[in-house]
Design brief:
alpha/beta, Rossmann fold, 17 helices, 15 strands, about 15% strand, globular, disordered N terminus, binds iron/sulfur cluster
């Protein structure tokens, strides 16, 4: 597997999803993560330092790989961190607006003015023109989207520049431009419409806008594909193969044979010209390190252990997992499904652990469990912690703008066109 987020000479390897296997952690009882979560509390496994060690060592501040933050962070052991965050937040008042993604740590979510998925948060950022600072507790591509959608007078801050996204990093502008040349050589570029997932860099969103495509989210991917197939014969879906495949097959009724996988690390994407001409969905070989780890075994195992359990997964999961699940939906869908679920019902959820844990604690009348036996945080999202939040807020109070995320104007213009196209989807 290609190294993601790894510095020039990483001392040890660690999974980009921050995976902690059952052997890496000590849980008082295995049931804490694999069976019912009791209302008395969720046993909260701490990510191992090794899981986070390799992030933030790249050198390009615009990259999803992230860089080390400048500045002197407060010590994580400082007992006054929460109070310092409260004081700094109060001092900024309406000048700042704090956004918190659903996968964030509790200690950060506590300070968010609004929580949501990447799309909702981008909309919320755009709806706050009076806020001078948008402090985005999410990952790099989300902060870029916020910068694209907010006014020139607003500044978007990412508290830790190491908070990137491994999926977004799997499709670079150069790779996608080369892929488009391959499509042109096969004679299909003119009939192909690019559809890019929100979880992509500003460069890829810009590429999509330049080529008349649209952005989509996990909530509107079906409508985006419908729209695209109304304009062309094929779709190039970036960068998440699973969302593309699941939407095409499950929602649009295409077959798996209609889909081909374009591997940017192989000449010609590893496909022949004829395969590209025959395909309807050209899927980019990218995936989410968190959702990609759920397997059919995880589903079969939980069904065996918990009779009557409802399996609810995110569409970034593999196709066989989605096909075996009872319900499939975006993060917002998952939250609403649990809210609407009857008391006493049992749910195994296949999405990021921080969210599943919060759902379990918010609904003690329901049996909520993580779908997999090993826990898996989004380690890049978890880079944003209280020390980084305190440091960024206190810096703003002191008049110093740190970790501002900006998108180059030409890229922003085309990316905005692709985002506007998404907002105009029927
Ligand atoms: S959960 Fe997956 S797609 Fe979302 S930020 Fe983390 S790595 Fe990226």
């Amino acid at each position: 597997m290609r190294d993601l987020y790894h510095g020039e000479k990483p001392p040890v390897r660690a999974p980009p999803c921050g995976k902690i296997t059952a052997t890496d952690i000590t849980l008082p009882e295995e049931r804490a993560l694999t069976t019912t979560v009791e209302p008395t509390g969720w046993t909260d496994p701490d990510p191992t330092p090794a899981a986070l060690l390799l992030l933030g060592r790249a050198t390009d501040p615009d990259s999803e790989r992230g860089v080390d933050c400048p500045g002197a962070l407060p010590a994580a052991s400082d007992p006054s961190l929460a109070e310092r965050a409260r004081v700094a937040r109060a001092a900024l008042g309406d000048r700042a607006f704090l956004l918190g993604h659903h996968y964030q740590r509790d200690e950060v979510i506590e300070f968010a003015d609004v929580t949501g998925d990447s799309f909702k948060l981008a909309q919320q950022a755009a709806a706050r023109p009076e806020a001078e600072f948008i402090v985005f507790c999410g990952v790099h591509f989300m902060a870029e989207s916020a910068d694209i959608l907010t006014g020139a007078h607003q500044r978007v801050i990412l508290p830790d520049l190491a908070a990137g996204c491994s999926m977004a990093d799997m499709a670079t502008f150069d790779q996608v431009s080369e892929a488009w040349d391959v499509l042109a050589d096969a004679g299909v570029a003119d009939v192909t419409v690019p559809v890019s997932y929100m979880n992509s860099s500003a460069d890829i969103k810009g590429f999509t806008g330049r080529h008349g495509g649209t952005i989509c989210t996990s909530s509107n991917a079906e409508r985006a594909l419908d729209w695209a197939f109304g304009r062309g014969e094929k779709v190039l879906f970036l960068p998440d193969q699973h969302l593309g495949r699941n939407t095409a097959v499950r929602d649009l009724g295409l077959s798996l044979d209609d889909c081909v996988l374009f591997d940017p690390h192989k000449p010609g994407g590893g496909l022949t010209g004829q395969q590209l001409r025959d395909a309807k969905m050209i899927l980019w070989r990218g995936h989410c390190s968190v959702h990609g780890r759920f397997t059919l075994d995880s589903v079969n195992d939980v069904r065996e252990r918990v009779p009557g359990v409802n399996v609810l997964v995110h569409p970034e999961c593999r196709h066989e997992v989605v096909a075996a699940a009872d319900q499939v939906g975006s993060t917002e869908y998952i939250i609403k499904a649990i809210e609407a679920a009857p008391t006493g019902s049992a749910w195994a959820i296949g999405t990021e652990l921080n969210l599943v844990k919060r759902l379990a604690l918010a609904h003690p009348d329901k049996r909520i469990m993580f779908l997999d036996k090993a826990v898996c945080f989004c380690s890049t999202m978890n880079r944003i912690d209280l020390p980084h939040l305190v440091w960024s807020l206190e810096s703003l109070v002191a008049g110093e703008v740190v970790n501002q995320i900006t998108v180059e104007p030409e890229t922003a213009r085309y990316a905005r066109a692709a985002l506007d196209q998404m907002l105009a989807l029927p």
